[in-house]
Design a protein that fits this description.
The chain has about 500 residues and is an alpha/beta fold. About 35% of the residues lie in helices and about 20% in strands. Strands 7, 8, 9, 10, 11, 14, 15, 16 and 18 form a 9-stranded mixed beta sheet that branches. Strands 1-6-5-2-4-3 form a 6-stranded mixed beta sheet, sandwiched between helices. The model has no long low-confidence stretch (mean pLDDT about 95). The structure holds ligand BES, manganese (II) ion and zinc ion. Manganese (II) ion binds next to loops.
């Protein structure tokens, strides 16, 4: 996305596929808009009749062939007092439909009366709303166009270069989110564990990061039997991806881990057929972590980052791991695999124990589509967050609030941690009964990070299929976690200076 910024006196509009987008507060007087007289009069009439009043979710496009831009799009943003960054993203999501249908390619976005950072959030929402997944067929079935350039019209006191730079950064982050969505939407016959590892290698190469990929023989040598046990039922080999970003003046190392189950059939504890296809999304944690790394490599925070992604398929082949099997993980703890469908925690166990030992991070965050219980608890509008450090959890919740990747904390008290003790081994990969499934999943992972400050984010409910958010498409992955991790890491890097 091409972004530039100008002051109002430099606004000349443009011919062709241009549109002036003007955010409109509820109760605003359309006569005050930058639109030409005819458009303002039309909007006045619509507002007098209550058709377009500036409520959130409203959007009115008017062709203005004789004005400076070819069309004007008034976008309702509700009351001035209540407008948030998320409101701006959603307004952009609402605007994206008409912009596409009217084949607009160049937007002039009038933010002269808008609060700071409105443009960033709006452009972010627009890039997210314009995400398409059409690699398996020719072209966009809706036949619309995409906005390729945005010219911001900024208030007089604001430096246009700076506004353009900040907004460009927001667009870049949103493109990172779309990268994760693309990876997640890709079918599991194409996005195998080795394909996921190749993607990581490509990202690392293009962004100047290092990347090592372990295969099953190396993992066996290292004693990663929890991860290997999951992979046993699949023809596709597992991979362990380790990606590193280094900054010469870093004071801190952050470890990010993402669950990369490219398909989760459940294994011998097989899942029901209905909805099983959605388990191609069981690598959304991995996608978020890898694409956050890609984005962060461009932003250049003063911090060291390590990403670890265990990538496997959980299937039912002749050699598949069997309920009751006992495996010894990388850190020596033995695990009774009572349910082969609780595989995410098994692969994260080895990945985390290994990366924590090898890289001695100051802090660890993992993202995983770990439990159906999290969908039951929180639905699709917040991910669950748990950990062994309240300050860390609070900092993540804060970053979530700012980015729209919202998190809600759940407790991880000792009583819960007792529920995953094994009968015949140190640990059991499930707890008895159906109680507190998200918490006991986290309790299991906790056993593999030692004393390092750590937080676990369960994204099972928010990674795909999220309805009623204008800038997200319920048929696609959301890329949840890219914006969150990017913002949180940038904040951590600033704080560590
Ligand atoms: N990948 C699933 C969790 C999941 C469920 C993600 C629904 C997205 C939507 C995970 O591997 C799983 O199967 N978890 C089990 C754990 C149980 C056996 C303790 C579950 O949630 O049923
Ligand atoms: Mn599973
Ligand atoms: Zn899974």
């Amino acid at each position: 996305m091409k972004i530039e910024a100008i002051h109002a006196e430099a606004y000349r509009g443009g011919k062709g596929d241009t549109c002036l987008v003007t955010p409109f507060f509820e109760g605003d007087d359309p006569a005050g808009l930058r639109a030409g007289k005819a458009a303002a009069a039309a909007l006045c009439a619509l507002s007098a009749r209550g058709v377009f009043t500036g409520k959130t979710g409203q959007c009115q496009c008017l062709p203005t062939p004789r004005d400076r831009a070819q069309a004007v799009l008034a976008v309702g943003v509700g009351s001035r007092a209540k407008l948030s960054a998320e409101g701006a993203r959603r307004a952009a999501g609402t605007a994206a439909g008409p912009l596409s249908r009217h084949r607009v390619r160049h937007v002039f976005l009038d933010v002269t009366r808008m609060p700071d950072r409105f443009a960033e959030a709006f452009v972010e929402g627009l890039v997210l709303a314009q995400y398409r997944f059409e690699v398996y067929r020719k072209g966009d079935p809706e036949g619309g166009a995409a906005v390729e350039a945005v010219t911001l019209i900024v208030p007089d006191g604001v430096n246009p270069d700076r506004a353009a730079r900040d907004t460009h950064r927001a667009a870049l982050i949103a493109m990172g989110v779309n990268g994760a969505r693309q990876l997640a939407d890709t079918a599991s016959n194409d996005l195998t564990p080795s394909a996921l590892a190749e993607f990581a290698r490509g990202v690392a190469r293009e962004s100047g990061m290092s990347c090592t990929v372990l295969g099953p023989r190396e993992m066996a040598e290292l004693g990663m039997n929890a991860l290997l046990g999951v992979a046993k039922g699949a023809a596709e080999e597992p991979r362990l991806v380790v990606m590193e970003y280094r900054h010469a003046r870093a004071k801190k190392t952050i470890l990010l881990a993402g669950k990369g189950v490219c398909f989760d059939a459940g294994g011998i504890s097989i899942k029901p057929a209905q909805g099983m296809h959605e388990m191609k999304y069981d690598m959304c944690g991995a996608a978020a972590v890898l694409c956050a790394m890609m984005t962060l490599a461009h932003l250049g925070p003063r911090v060291n980052l390590v990403a670890v992604v265990p990538a496997v398929e959980n299937k039912t082949g002749a050699r598949a791991q069997t309920p009751g099997d006992i495996v010894r993980a990388y850190n020596g703890k033995t695990i009774e695999v009572r349910n082969t469908d609780a595989e995410g925690r098994l692969i994260l166990a080895d990945a985390l124990a290994y990366a924590v030992e090898k890289h001695a991070p100051d802090v660890v965050v993992d993202l995983a589509t770990l439990t159906g219980a999290c969908v039951v608890a929180l639905g699709h509008y917040a991910a669950g967050v748990l950990g062994n450090d309240d300050g860390l959890v609070a900092s993540l919740v804060g970053a979530g609030e700012e980015t729209g990747d919202r998190l809600w904390p759940l407790p991880l008290w000792d009583e819960y941690c007792d529920l995953i003790k094994g009968d015949h081994a140190d640990l059991c990969n499930i707890s008895p009964g159906r109680d507190a499934g998200t918490i006991t999943g986290a309790a299991f992972i906790k056993e593999f990070v030692g004393g390092t400050p750590w937080a676990h984010i369960d994204i099972a409910g928010v990674a795909y299929g999220v309805k009623h958010i204008p800038h997200l498409n319920p048929k696609h992955a959301t890329g949840f976690g890219v914006r969150l991790l990017t913002r949180w890491v940038m904040d951590q890097a600033k704080a560590a200076k």
